[in-house]
Amino acid sequence: MTTSPTVFVTGATSGIGRACAELFSEAGARVIATGRRAERLEELAASLPGPCRTLQLDVRDADDVAAQVAGLDDEFAEIDVLVNNAGMAIGRDGLHEMSPGDSAAVIETNVIGALNVIHAILPAMVARGRGHVVSIGSNAARDVYAGGAVYCASKAALDRITKGMRIDVLGTGVRVSTVDPGMVRTEFNEHRMGDPEAAAEVYRGMTPLTPRDIAEIVAWVVGRPDHVQVAEVLVYATDQAGHGQVARRGGGS
């Protein structure tokens, strides 16, 4: 990794993506923050201590992703690190209750969207002989739970894409990693459930991970020497041992 790397973060308007943008900027990186909410991108860019470019984009739009990456100015054109973070889930209905449109939206964002960004950025990394792709996965890639069939499938697909990518770029100098968080308190569950109180109940009686916790792990993975590739990290809160395996000891809120 170069002294002042350029880091491209998808889904940077909240949660883990925002925390990654903040931490890398604090460490002296140039940050390209992307997301769908322009006002949040502007607020983020104004708050960062280092140079930042914002791209308002929907990762599901392959042509727009490619065009905006190609249109970056010289200072930001060589991307050293891709944090593939943008993702979503909709509701907790069983598969027989879920609409085809909602299923498609989850797959298009979490799988096709990730691929669109990879296609736009990875070839230049391979050509330069350096770079690092970090996919933010989930323990849902490893466990399946009621009401999570499509989301779990999307994260399992991202896991397989990442593993295959690591094989495909072997010998090029490009590193490929996955960070799979367990329970992290972000806006994710609020959007998924459409109910802040129901989302808060998920974390009742325990202390979940924070977006900053995950960002620090991503930064550690990226900061290893060039000959070290951390293939995957699974991280839980202390009071979690798997999906649905949670000790509620009265911590958190």
Write the layout of secondary structure elements.
Blueprint (H helix, E strand, L loop, with lengths): L5 E4 L5 H12 L3 E6 L2 H10 L4 E5 L5 H9 L3 H4 L3 E4 L15 H29 L2 E6 L12 H20 L5 E8 L6 H6 L2 H6 L9 H12 L9 E4 L4 E3 L2 E2 L7
Parallel strand pairs: 1-2, 1-4, 2-3, 4-5, 5-6, 6-7
Antiparallel strand pairs: 8-9
Helix pairs in contact: 1-9, 3-5, 5-6
Description:
There is one protein chain. The chain has 9 helices and 9 strands. The chain is α/β, with parallel strands linked by helices and 253 residues long. It has a single domain (6-246), classed as Rossmann fold (3-Layer(aba) Sandwich).
Q: Report the strand count.
A: 9
- Domains (count): 1
List segments where confidence is low: pLDDT < 50 over at least 5 consecutive residues: none
Helical proportion, percent range: 40-55%
Compressed to H and E, one letter per element, the order equals EHEHEHHEHEHEHHHEEE
Euclidean distance between termini CA atoms: 39 Å
Write out the strand line-up for the largest beta sheet, numbering strands in chain order. 3-2-1-4-5-6-7
What is the CATH level 1 assignment? Alpha Beta
CATH T-level fold name = Rossmann fold
Strand proportion, as a percent range, falls in 15-25%
Oligomeric organization of the protein chains: single chain
The geometry reads as globular
Number of helices: 9
Rg result: 18 Å
Using the 3D structure, state the CATH architecture.
3-Layer(aba) Sandwich
Name the average pLDDT.
Answer: 94
The major pleated sheet works out as: 7 strands, parallel
The CATH superfamily name is: NAD(P)-binding Rossmann-like Domain
Class from secondary-structure proportions: alpha/beta
